[in-house]
Amino acid sequence: MGRLFIESLSGPRIFKCKCCKVDSASRDHVVSKDFQGRYGRAYLFRSVVNVCLGPTEERVLVSGLHTVNDIYCSSCQQILGWRYEKAYEESQKYKEGMYILEKERMLKVGW
Ligand SMILES: [Zn+2]
Predict the structure, then answer these.
(1) Is 54 contained in some domain?
(2) Per the domain annotation, does 105 fall within a domain?
(3) Where on the tree of life does the source sit, at the highest rank (predicted)?
């Protein structure tokens, strides 16, 4: 078995992978809590940790066409959400390089 590097986040309020409980993101990096994921509500983050990127693909989302990568927990490989690689509409450009994490797949710790 290979050694896996797991990054730990500091701060009082952390989102963890619900499946394996490694840190995924900090409350400080939430940009919006009002997004729609595959499984219901989702949060938009400026940065996340301990994730692997899936292949780049074009996807039509509620807010139009985007180029995205699915993101997986690097510890348990569970799908957690996606990353916005490129947005085509001017009003959506701010999301480029940001991450969606599904609320359903997250464990909130310290709230
Ligand atoms: Zn996990």
Answers:
(1) yes
(2) yes
(3) Eukaryota
